[in-house]
């Protein structure tokens, strides 16, 4: 419609509204203008499918998302941005035919969190290529021609969580990215599918943290069949991991002299490997404990066996590393457990016709066996003691037994009116009238020393002020043994 309806139903021209939106938009201000052949909305700049051969200029400094996908930008140089783009957190450069990216190209965008370089013609990841992107979380490099990855290409990416390297030409597993956990400490997903990997370091992959080991994609690679590979995939299938279940048909490997690959999960009991599925167990322990990990193998009398620690260290019959020792029955003994001893231990047993691997996950709780329980018992005892103290104080105040079986025949003058008011406010024991001779005692306090506040005895007595006449007669001296002073001695439990 060319006209809009107003609040009361009258037609209103849309021009004032569009003018107001243009004035409110940053593109209409002094911050910058929208480049030609681009679509701009708020802080989003979309130049997709604009037949661009270079990055448009000038770029507004407040842009947060820059989409340059599906263009013809073949080289991404260091001067693509004339100035620093401090607000840019997403840069999309897919489907551009990129063959060159400068090592200084990302110095202008220090706060970038999402970078898409997929579906290009990149052949190598150069030294320190992404080192300026210290806040990067997602990096997409799939569907390129990458065959070489420099060891320092992902240096300083301490916040990277997802790395997609699938559909490339990588022939060597980049284990240096994962081995010590310091290069990419936050990495939770690694996609190496559809590359040219022939082998996988299964033993070291078992030592990876579970969040990364369970999100490692290896399908559609020309892997060579062996039993450790089978056990790695079978373990993921048993745990119903998406990396195995979703790509089960593409998880295939090559047997010697075979004309076609076979499914990795079909290697169970199949000649010539005759692989058996690895078994797992979980053991819990505490700091400082000594535990024994049993290698409960079905292969009796097998002499060829060894353990692999979570750090990838091999413990064989020759001895251990000081805290780990291989026993005569094949078990692994760990002494004085430390937090770094936690992880998955693998026991490999080899026989003439069959080999077997057993995995045992050790959980080391970060406290001693008796520490937290003792703390809990102490806190519980303290709480019970405080509650018992309060109960005893209340019993003392309200249920103090009468010390006389009959009252003496001495009449007491009634208390003044204002003292009765004070007693009703401050005392938990009501005032009583004078006792009648010969009747049982009904007062909770003795008449020899005189009752104090709260119906308590004042041993030694606090001297009373001399009686006065008037509206404020017989005002008592403050008593340190009042209710407030009694409860002030009781510990407060928060």
From TrEMBL:
Gene3D superfamilies, per database record: Immunoglobulins, Ribonuclease Inhibitor
Where is it predominantly found? Answer: membrane
**Signal peptide annotation:** 1-32
Keyword Signal found: yes
- Domain Ig-like: residue ranges: 261-347
Instruction: List the keywords (alphabetical).
Output: Cell adhesion, Disulfide bond, Glycoprotein, Immunoglobulin domain, Leucine-rich repeat, Membrane, Repeat, Signal, Transmembrane, Transmembrane helix
Any idea where this protein resides? Membrane
* Keyword Disulfide bond set for record: yes
List every stretch annotated Disordered.
417-494
Q: Which family does it belong to?
A: Belongs to the immunoglobulin superfamily. AMIGO family.
What is the designated name of this protein? AMGO1 protein
Source organism per UniProt: Chordeiles acutipennis (Lesser nighthawk)
Its lineage reads: Eukaryota, Metazoa, Chordata, Craniata, Vertebrata
């Amino acid at each position: 419609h060319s006209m809009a309806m107003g609040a009361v139903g009258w037609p209103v021209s849309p021009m004032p509204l569009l003018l107001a939106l243009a004035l409110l938009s940053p593109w209409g201000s002094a911050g910058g203008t929208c480049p030609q052949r681009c679509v701009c909305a708020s802080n989003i700049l979309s130049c997709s499918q604009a037949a661009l051969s270079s990055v448009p200029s000038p770029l507004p400094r407040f842009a947060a998302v820059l989409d340059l996908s599906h263009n013809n930008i073949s080289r991404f140089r260091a001067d693509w941005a004339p100035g620093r783009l401090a607000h840019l957190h997403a840069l999309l450069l897919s489907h551009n035919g990129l063959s060159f990216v400068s090592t200084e190209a990302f110095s202008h965008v220090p706060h970038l969190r999402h970078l898409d370089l997929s579906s290009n013609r990149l052949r190598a990841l150069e030294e320190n290529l992404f080192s300026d992107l210290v806040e990067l979380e997602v990096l997409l490099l799939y569907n390129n021609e990458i065959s070489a990855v420099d060891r320092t290409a992902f240096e300083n990416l301490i916040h990277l969580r997802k790395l997609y390297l699938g559909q490339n030409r990588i022939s060597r597993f980049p284990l240096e990215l994962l081995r010590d956990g310091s290069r990419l400490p936050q990495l939770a997903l690694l996609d190496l599918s559809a590359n040219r990997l022939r082998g996988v370091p299964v033993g070291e992959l078992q030592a990876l943290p579970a969040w990364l080991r369970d999100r490692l994609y290896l399908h559609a690679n020309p892997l060579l069949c062996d039993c450790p590979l089978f056990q790695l995939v079978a373990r993921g299938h048993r745990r119903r991991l998406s990396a195995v279940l979703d790509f089960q048909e593409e998880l295939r490997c090559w047997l010697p002299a075979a004309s076609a690959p076979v499914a990795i999960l079909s290697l169970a009991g199949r000649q010539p490997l005759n692989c058996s599925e690895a078994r797992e167990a979980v053991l819990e322990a505490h700091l400082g404990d000594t535990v024994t990990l049993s290698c409960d193998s079905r292969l009796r009398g097998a002499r060829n066996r060894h353990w692999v620690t979570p750090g990838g260290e091999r413990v064989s019959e020759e001895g251990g590393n000081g805290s780990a020792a291989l026993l005569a029955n094949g078990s692994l003994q760990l002494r004085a457990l430390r937090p770094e001893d936690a992880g998955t231990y693998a026991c490999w047993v080899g026989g003439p016709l069959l080999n077997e691997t057993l995995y045992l996950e050790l959980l080391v709780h970060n406290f001693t066996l008796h520490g937290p329980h003792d703390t809990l018992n102490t806190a519980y005892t303290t709480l019970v003691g405080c509650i018992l103290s309060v109960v005893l104080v209340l019993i003392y105040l309200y249920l103090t037994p009468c010390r006389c079986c009959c009252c003496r025949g001495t009449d007491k003058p009634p208390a003044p009116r204002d003292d009765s008011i004070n007693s009703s406010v401050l005392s938990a024991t009501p005032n009583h009238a004078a006792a009648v001779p010969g009747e049982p005692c009904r007062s909770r306090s003795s008449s020899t020393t005189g009752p104090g506040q709260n119906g308590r005895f004042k041993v030694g007595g606090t001297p009373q002020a001399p009686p006065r006449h008037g509206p404020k007669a017989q005002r008592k001296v403050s008593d340190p043994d009042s209710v407030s002073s009694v409860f002030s001695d009781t510990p407060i439990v928060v």
